[in-house]
Each structure stands twice: as structure tokens, then as C-alpha cells.
């Protein structure tokens, strides 16, 4: 890991399950450089979760909720009990 990059870990309990995130952030600009999401929540279709991770790369932490909401709309995903705000909370808490 190069200077200026932070590795962070987040956990958030949403209504639909626990969400975990391990992610790298450019410390100077609060931009996500890499993210891995996991937990005991449902995400349909399941293979879209890796697409969501890829879509979050390059996103500022204060724009995560909007980016996830856009992803949901563009890809017609469903995650019962887990909202875009929940992903924002796991990445910003």
C-alpha cells in the first residue's frame, strides 16, 4: 500500500442483514480505490455485487449513497432490507 492510501473496514447491521466492507481510500481525497463487500444480506442477481464493487471505485465517500442508488436503478437489482443508504453507512461510519 502506497503512502496516502488507507485500508478501512466497516460493518453495518441493516434490516436485511449484516454488511461488511474492506476498502482502500485515497486519504487526501476520500476516493474509493478498491472495495470488497460481504455479509449475510441478499442481493439479486448475486453476480451483480461484484459489479457494484467495481462501480464504487473512483467514487468519493460522500457520494456513495447516490452512486449505489444509480447502480440499483441502472441494473435493476434487489436487496431486501438493504438500501443504498446502508452501503453508504458501511463505507463512511
Q: What is the alpha-carbon Rg in Å?
A: 12 Å
Which class best fits the helix and strand makeup?
Answer: alpha+beta
Percentage of residues in strands: 25-35%
- How is the main sheet built? 3 strands, antiparallel
Structure described in brief:
The protein has 3 helices and 3 strands. The protein has 93 residues and is α+β, with helices and mostly antiparallel strands.
Structure overview:
- The structure is a single chain.
- With 93 residues, the chain is α+β, with helices and mostly antiparallel strands.
- A hairpin with a 2-residue loop joins strand 1 and strand 2.
- It is globular and about 40 Å long.
- The protein starts with a strand and ends with a helix.
Question: What structural keywords apply?
Answer:
93 residues; alpha+beta; three-stranded antiparallel beta sheet; 3 helices; 3 strands; 32% helix
Give a topology summary.
Blueprint: E1 5-14, E2 17-26, E3 31-39, H1 48-56, H2 64-75, H3 84-92
Helix pairs in contact: 1-2, 2-3
